[in-house]
């Protein structure tokens, strides 16, 4: 009896794989999501300062003002351009410069006289990331160049406290090292739900669900065949994306064990594909499935810790998200791929994903069996 069930699940899954191979839209979505989408997310969403446009209004024309202008160097800033004060508003309104440094008259003499003059830094905050980071950089550059000028030495006076900064896991704070892997995790969530849900909705729309119901197969076998077939496709896509896109094309180092991560992906896929099955029992058409996907998957991605650390969320929301396998999935993915964590570190997350995902899988299968029974009736 068991062997017959396994055989039915296997052959139904093979049918699903053949059906997916002929669906060029879904197949193209899988290829795009784990290749071009990952590259675009890694290279376009930069979280560090790079080639920020800057202009200098030099009303002092002194040695100190020139040294401050020369302190803004690539790759953080573009070469500063000198402009007149009357052009500042027009150039900022047209978005030509993100930063404008206005050095007032008699700035050098006021500094040497100990009168603490003020330099105005005008920032275009529509470039939000560069504005926040660049303002701090600009302040540090002006302070450092002024201190060196006052001391008449290329060495900044020794501060009372020395900071020894050590950046772990991403020494150069390169955004692509983070966003590329998080892009894969987001694609796992998206495609697992869409593929599993589309498999059920497609059977209903094409009328082949009625054919399955008259065959000697159970709703459990139908659902499990959809789950393993689509999970296999996503697992293979994740492995290929990590190797060819993340490591080869983007040159992002993977600190931990990829096989261990893939085991975690397979455990998590039972939960995410179960969501797809559950939503497919509610939706009657593909557009309805798409709308339900937005309501479910977007909050899972945004609140899982992939974009914003859980520690920055309200305590109530943070506690609620501990019941979501996506939160534990992101946690062990970051632990393995970024920090090189082993099984002895991530196994509690594996267990949490397995238990919560298994519970939801049971709910989805019961719901699917009920819907199929009503349809058959």
Walk me through what this model shows:
- The protein has helices at residues 2-22, 24-33, 36-44, 63-70, 88-93, 107-112, 128-151, 175-206, 208-213, 219-249, 258-282, 286-302, 315-321, 325-337, 343-376, and strands spanning 54-58, 81-82, 99-103, 120-123.
- With 377 residues, the chain is mostly helical.
- The chain has 2 domains: 2-45 and 173-376, no CATH class; 54-151, abc type-2 transporter like fold (3-Layer(aba) Sandwich).
- A 4-stranded mixed beta sheet has the order 2-1-3-4, with helices on one face.
- The longest helix has 34 residues, at 343-376.
- Tally the beta strands: 4
State the separation between the terminal residues, measured CA to CA.
Answer: 25 Å
Order of H and E elements:
HHHEHEHEHEHHHHHHHHH
Computed over alpha carbons, the radius of gyration is 28 Å
The secondary structure category is mainly alpha
Give the total of domains: 2
The tally of helices reads: 15
Helix content: 55-70%
Q: Quick one: biggest sheet?
A: 4 strands, mixed
Layout: helices, strands, pairs:
Elements lengths: L1 H21 L1 H10 L2 H9 L9 E5 L4 H8 L10 E2 L5 H6 L5 E5 L3 H6 L7 E4 L4 H24 L23 H32 L1 H6 L5 H31 L8 H25 L3 H17 L12 H7 L3 H13 L5 H34 L1
Parallel strand pairs: 1-2, 1-3
Antiparallel strand pairs: 3-4
Helix pairs in contact: 1-10, 2-8, 3-8, 8-10, 8-11, 8-12, 8-14, 10-11, 11-14, 11-15, 14-15
Entry summary:
The protein is mainly α.
Q: What key phrases describe this protein's structure?
A:
4 strands; single chain; 2 domains; 15 helices; 66% helix; 4-stranded mixed β-sheet; abc type-2 transporter like fold; mainly alpha; 377 residues
